[in-house]
Write a structure and sequence with these properties.
Layout (H helix, E strand, L loop, with lengths): L1 E4 L4 H18 L2 H5 L1 E8 L9 H7 L1 E8 L5 E8 L9 H23 L3 E3 L5 E4 L2 E4 L8 H5 L1 H22 L2
Parallel strand pairs: 1-2, 2-4
Antiparallel strand pairs: 3-4, 5-6, 6-7
């Protein structure tokens, strides 16, 4: 279900797996989770193709829906900037920023798994919860990006999901 690339420490990979399952189980049925595959790539800007670097530096992360396998499994790729994982300190504080970004991207995965989100092949339209939207191809700073309902949901849930997980895992 989850393949992690670019994270060397086992304790970090284990925490990412646990958090991913916590978030998805909150929103998605076990059957839909079982029929999905998420490739999580933790990358530095220089590891991406040159034409993606500027956008990656600006966004820091993104999720792509990669279609279905022949067996009907839905495939996703989440790419998150390595800088969101701190290099020193205890595990949870080091991973806090990363997990919040991951939560945001997992909300997008949820939107596709639950058939709430659909991108049209023209790249200019998307359907979200039954309503058709024009999709801006401009930079992230465009207001249209922040006001799109799928981003409002993802930004709105990211911090809350992390806080819920902390209470669930640590009782804090």
């Amino acid at each position: 279900m989850l393949v992690i690339s670019g994270v060397k420490l086992r304790e970090e990979r284990d925490l990412i797996r646990e958090y991913t399952l916590f978030v998805l189980n909150h929103f998605v049925s076990a059957a839909k989770i079982a029929k999905s595959r998420i490739n999580l790539l933790v990358r530095d800007t220089e590891e991406l193709p040159e034409d993606e670097r500027e956008e990656f530096d600006e966004a820091g992360a993104w999720m792509t829906y990669d279609g279905k396998t022949d067996s009907g499994m839905k495939k996703f790729t989440i790419t998150i900037h390595r800088s969101t994982i701190k290099t020193v300190g205890q595990l949870r504080p080091r991973m806090r920023s990363f997990l919040k970004v991951l939560g945001h991207e997992l909300v997008h995965v949820k939107q596709y798994l639950n058939h709430e989100m659909f991108d049209y092949s023209d790249g200019e339209r998307a359907r979200f919860k039954g309503r058709l939207y024009s999709v801006s191809q401009s930079k992230k700073m465009d207001w249209q990006y922040y006001e799109s309902p799928w981003e409002v949901e993802a930004y709105g849930r990211a911090v809350g999901l992390y806080d819920m997980w902390v209470v669930h895992k640590y009782g804090e």
